[in-house]
Amino acid sequence: MPVYKLIYFKSRGRGEMIRLAFAAAGVKYEDCRLTREEFEELKASGIVPFDQLPILEVDGKILAKSMTICKYVARETGFAPTESFEVAKADMIVDGIDDLTDKGVQVFIEKDEETKVMFLVGINQFKQLWFICQNSKLLSYLQNNYINVNSGRRGDLKKLEEAIPS
Questions:
Q1: d(CA 13, CA 9)
Q2: Which residues form the GST N-terminal domain (predicted)?
């Protein structure tokens, strides 16, 4: 069994989906939560690809990018679909929600208040489109064909994560 070490900040953020995948599979891993200062030290060491967290250490090897890590963990723990089109459907759902997460991050890190307001307007427009989809035949189709919270698939775990309050 590989030895896993998830390295992220002391928050849920982009690391939580990975934590949920490990928990759902009952797989033990080290959950290393860093302060900003500790992250800067780790980044200076040169082992952090893209200078971003989360990273996953697997038997001493490093993986970066939250969705890449999540897909890897899902495959390794049996929570990913195996049929090619099912994999694509799971990716579609996760990537759509990841788009919204990216927009939220922009608001969080932006210092200029006018720019922050522009980001918030963009998020509201995105959320309105998402709401329209939620009340349409499209979402009904997705729910009936792709989303099953009890299945444990990666796309379903992402939906479950979004339902859990911070």
A1: 8
A2: 2-81
The domain locations on the chain are: 4-77, 84-162
Beta sheet of 4-9, edge-to-edge order: 30-34, 4-9, 55-58, 61-64
Kindly give the pairing relationship between strand 30-34 and strand 55-58. unpaired
Assign domain 4-77 to its CATH architecture: 3-Layer(aba) Sandwich (3.40)
Residue pointed to by tokens 């997460």: 101
DSSP H or E run through 56: strand 55-58
Measured in residues, the chain has a length of 166
59 close to 67: Cβ distance less than 8 angstroms: no
Tell me the mean pLDDT in the region 127-143. Answer: 54
Whether the Cβ atoms of residue 42 and residue 48 lie closer than 8 Å to each other: yes
Q: What confidence tens digit (pLDDT) does each residue in 22-56 have?
A: 988 889 999 999 999 999 999 999 999 999 999 99
CB atoms within 10 A of CB 131: 11
